[in-house]
Every structure is written in C-alpha cells, then in structure tokens.
Design brief:
86 residues, mainly alpha, 0% strand
C-alpha cells in the first residue's frame, strides 16, 4: 500500500518515482517475484479499484490506471530482470 500511495502521489512527477520503483523491483525479485506475476497483480489492482470506486470507476479512470500500472510494471520488470531469466 505504501508503494501504491507513492505512485499516486508521484503521478505528476513520474521521474521522481522511477528510481524508487526500480529499487523496489529488485527487492521483489529477491523475494521470488517473477516477471509473469506483474500481470495478475495489475488485474487484481484494477478489479479492487473497480469494486472500491463503484460508479466512479469510469472507463477513463480504468484506462488511466491501466496505463499507469503498465508503465510502472514495465519499468520494474526491466530493472529487476534485464539480462536475467525471469
């Protein structure tokens, strides 16, 4: 939840959260997280937001969150697994 809060607060300055996300990704890999785990986590995040926000989870909100997660998870996957077998 702390990482999610950081992301939300940092959306206006994505360059500030990239280094934090990269370090977090390396720690995740050390815990056994694999690259293929990111997709179901993203799906779970969107599902949770949909249930929590109800009618406020509009197609535009879903698209924005989806794009934010896609960007962040891409950065994290690259940082943790570049040159390694995922």
């Amino acid at each position: 939840m702390q990482a999610l809060s950081l992301v939300v607060k940092g959306l206006n300055d994505i360059s500030a959260i990239i280094p934090v996300a990269q370090k977090l990704a390396v720690r995740h890999a050390d815990y056994g997280v694999r690259a293929e785990h990111y997709q179901p986590v993203g799906e779970a995040l969107l599902w949770t937001l949909e249930k929590g926000l109800g009618p406020d989870f509009t197609p535009a909100v879903k698209a924005a969150w989806g794009e934010a997660y896609k960007t962040l998870s891409g950065v994290m996957i690259a940082a943790a697994y570049q040159g390694k077998a995922a």
